[in-house]
Structure formats: structure tokens, C-alpha cells
Specification:
Rossmann fold; diaminopropionate ammonia-lyase activity; globular; EC 4.3.1.15; alpha/beta; TrpB-like_PALP_sf
Length: 391
Amino acid sequence: MFLLNSHPDNGQPLLPEDAETLGAAGAAAVEAQIRLRENYAVTPLHDLPGLAAQLGVGAIQVKDEGHRLGLGSFKALGGSYVVVKLVLEEAARRLGRPIDIAELQSSAVKEVAASLTFSCATDGNHGRSVAQGAQLVGARAAIFVHSGVSEERIAAIARFGATMIRAEGTYDDSVAEAARVSAEKGWTVVSDTSWPGYERIPGLVMQGYTALVAEALRQMKEPPTHVFVQVGVGGIAAAVAAHFALVLGEKRPVFVAVDPARAACMFASAQAGGPVKAEVGEPTVMAMLDCYEPSLVAWRILSRVADAFMTVEDEDAVAVMNRLARPVGGDPVIVAGESGGAGLAGLIRVAGDPAMRAQLRLDATSRVFVVNTEGATDPARYAELVHGKAA
């Protein structure tokens, strides 16, 4: 399914708080923090000339977040960044003076951190990031997972010392349970989705994601003309779209938000003209995008700066995993998890449809940017889908 953005807010400026969080200054703040990590490295930006020629576009560039901060996912930029930031803010409040990040490992700050518990609901990658951040500063982490999260992904979170809590139902049910229990226990929820009255922290999580766009712009010879990014609750798509719009202004690229057909909460919201819950059915193979309610902050951003919304099928995502693993035309091998190539799957679907190409002005001169949002974060599942090996 494909839909041009017809919302009345389309083309309107971002709200001031979103522009402040997701612009160049916000990305610089994130990069200043993550550069201090022991495993910091700029992730690769790969050119895919072989695939670009097949699809009839000028260039395809993939930002490969499968190498990010030892976690294998762009989520490493969000949750852990926010945990560190909130610890420094709380230390400043208790100690009555500004606290620089250089003091993060000081005894005074570590004493503050040890008194804090950070919680979240996760499909896997966000929980790893929050747990990693808590371990980094000496705080505690309580991570809520729903029934669809694999044991391998749970173990990957638990190795950071997090307390794992099972919640019945879908991802959205685990979000509600995390909020309820955290309110009872006085824990700080670091969620990548937002709801009425809870917007600042999800906004900061999204700010973390802008670092990958700032890196990519420095790696490019020319900015892209088109961008396809997967949705989930919308944080990554909104962060990427907003940063491009704020930094490039009138030269910003055409932006397409890509949902899994089985969990198309942002597409459904675009159809309805406002945020709605998508119908819950069979889970999508794109496990990190198996979300049925959009983040309110992400919706208000995408309603302004997304040019189109679309869906891709599970088989499209699996086909991209295999295409990147066995590339053509001299393209590099890229390891993409089930959700990692959904944006690229959107491009492939559009490129094969003359009507959609025309609507997006996609042609042989177009320079397309996509994000591989995760590597093989569930190795057994990756082996099954790409190499035909039983999980």
C-alpha cells in the first residue's frame, strides 16, 4: 500500500521543541557523548551501484547500523544516550551544580546513579541499549519483554545485568505494563514511544538517532534526493526525516516512511488523518517493527515532513536480507536483520511501480539513502531466513 501525505500539517514547520531536539545542535550533543565510549566508531556508509543500476536510480547508499557501539543496532544511539544524560541531570540536581560528562565515573555521580532504576519495554534492541547505558553508569535496569521476544534476544539484554520482566500480549501491552509498574516503584521509564504527558524522554531517544544522519551527511559527496526509512513506533523515521529537513531546508530529500504490512500503525494513522492503533493480527517477521500504536511525537513530526507512507510485506523484508547477503554488481555484503532492510524493501517496491516512481519523482538521477537499522541481532533467526538453517 502507498499513500502520499495529504495531512493539513504537511509542509508546516516542526514544533519548536522538536526542531531544538532534532537539529544540528542536538546531533552534536549526542556525538559529543558517544565519542567518549570505548567502542565508539563511525558506522559505514555503503554504496550499492549494482543494485542502483538494477532499480534504475542514480545511487543507493546504506548507513549500516549493524556495527553501532557493540549492540548491532541503531538503538544503541538512543536508550543508552538518554540514561547517561538523565544520570548527569539528576546528579546536577542533587549536588547543586552543573555536572560535566567527564565526571560520569566520579564517586559522587556513581552514588547518584546507583540509586536509580531505568526501565523500558522492548522488542529487543532498545532494551539492550537502556541496559547497556545503566551498566555503563552503575544504575539498575528493569526491562519488560512481551511474548514475541525470542530467548536469544532476552539473553542479549540480560548479559548487561538487567532484570528481565515478562509481560503478556504485544509490544504495546508491554509498554503499558512497564509504565504501570515503573510508576508504582519509582523507576524512570526510558521509552522510545510517547503518549500524552510523556514526551521529553522519547524526544531525547530520537535525538540520539540523529547522530547517524549527521555522520552520513559528512560521509556523502552529495546529499540524497530520496530517503526510505522503516517505522516501528516511528522514532527512527521521524528523527531521520526531521534532521534532514532542519539541516537541508528547501533542499531536503523526499522522505518515505515504510511500515510492515502486518504492523502498519503509521500508515493507518496517515490514512485516518491522526494517530490510531493498527489492527493486531499475525506478528510480522520484522520483529523490531512489530508495533501497533505510533509514538505521538513521531506522528506529529512525520505528519509535517514525510512525503509518503507505505507498507512492505514480510517476504519483501526477507528478500532484502538475502539480497544484501548475496549482492550483485560488486556491491558489498551487508548483514541485515529481519527489520534492518525494510526501508530498502520500500525502495525496491517503489522502483518497480511506474505510478509510485512518478509520484515520488524517482528516476535515473535519484540518490537514495536508506538505513540498515540492525545486523543479525537474532543470529539463529538470521541463519534460518538467509541460509535456510533451522533455528
